[in-house]
Amino acid sequence: MASQTPGIQLLLAAEQRTAVRIAEAKKKRIKRLKQAKEEALAEIEMYRMEREKKLEELKADLDKVREKDAEKIEKQTKIRIDRMQKSVDRNRKDVVDKIMELVCEVSS
Questions:
Q1: Biggest alpha carbon–alpha carbon distance for the chain
Q2: Within 13 A of 86's CA, how many CA atoms are on the CB side?
Q3: How far is CA 33 from CA 1, 27, 45, 62, in A?
Q4: Is the dihedral of CA 76, 79, 81, 87 positive or negative?
Q5: Torsion of CA 65, 66, 68, 71, to 10 degrees
């Protein structure tokens, strides 16, 4: 039995060293997982910020397009109104004369 005791002690010491190494490896793994998670979160945040910036740029571009379209429509509307006003001005006398003619015919 005396010869087995040093062997058992060696095994116990080896088991203890192994347990320490395993514990250290677990700590390193947990630390690396936390670091990887932080890196992933930072990368996600960067991506989100880039996408938000792109969205804001697209919104600004859309606003410019809308503004140009509104200006174009306003210009076209003004041109049409001017044409109609000119037509009214041109035909006013003829219409009044025609109305007077019809009124006078009915009255007679």
A1: 150
A2: 6
A3: 47, 10, 18, 43
A4: negative
A5: 170
